[in-house]
Amino acid sequence: MKKWYFCKQCGYSCVISGLTQISNRLIGKGSPEMCPNCNIKIAELPIEIVDKYDCFNGLNIFSTDWIESREQYINDYVSQFPEFNKELYKKELSRLKESAERHFQYEEVQKEKYMAKINKEAQKILDKQNCISKCPICGSTNINKITLGSRAAKTAVFGVVGAVDDAGKTYKCGNCGGKF
Ligand SMILES: [Zn+2]
Ligand SMILES: [Zn+2]
Questions:
Q1: How far apart, in whole angstroms, are the C-alpha atoms of residue 128 and residue 166?
Q2: What is the pTM for the complete model shown?
């Protein structure tokens, strides 16, 4: 069972499942029920609050809507507690900003890694094709390489699947016109 918790001082919120609690205990990590900003025990967030604000209900984290909804939750709910502290809330905001940057950097790195992998696969296929020296249909050595330009464009649009599909057509035979 997942439950939302929050800090009355800074508005920090998080989900704690029974599993998180057990695994934290097993690896000797500190209690997940402490606020990382204020180091005080966090309280369970009432279900009606969780239901009321979309930031707890599947909005993309750090999206504009998520930030707006989260601000609303702070203004409506957390700010009415006597413990609420504007300075600590600012601290929580900068912590969120930092995690947002880490989050987006991570996505960027993943994307680059993925593209590098695709390009490598495509290059492997090209290298294999480059070994062909005569037409497998008529045996002629009068073969022309199909330009890399269109191939690279197709790879960019269709990813590695397009490259594989196109791989059978690296050369055109000048004798019989066959593509292979
Ligand atoms: Zn806090
Ligand atoms: Zn041929």
A1: 13
A2: 0.55
Q: How many helices and strands (H and E) does the chain possess?
A: 5, 5
pLDDT in tens, 139-161: 888 888 776 555 555 555 555 54
pLDDT tens profile 42-73: 999 999 999 999 999 888 888 889 989 999 99
Q: Which ligand is nearest to the CA of 179?
A: 2
Spell out the domain ranges in the chain. 2-84, 109-173
Considering every ligand atom shown, identify the ligand nearest to the alpha carbon of residue 143 and give its number.
2
Q: How many angstroms does the Cα of residue 6 sit away from the middle of ligand 1?
A: 8
What is the residue type of 167?
A
The beta-strand segments (E) located in the chain are 2-6, 13-17, 43-44, 143-145, 171-173
Whole-number Å distance between alpha carbons of 67 and 61: 8
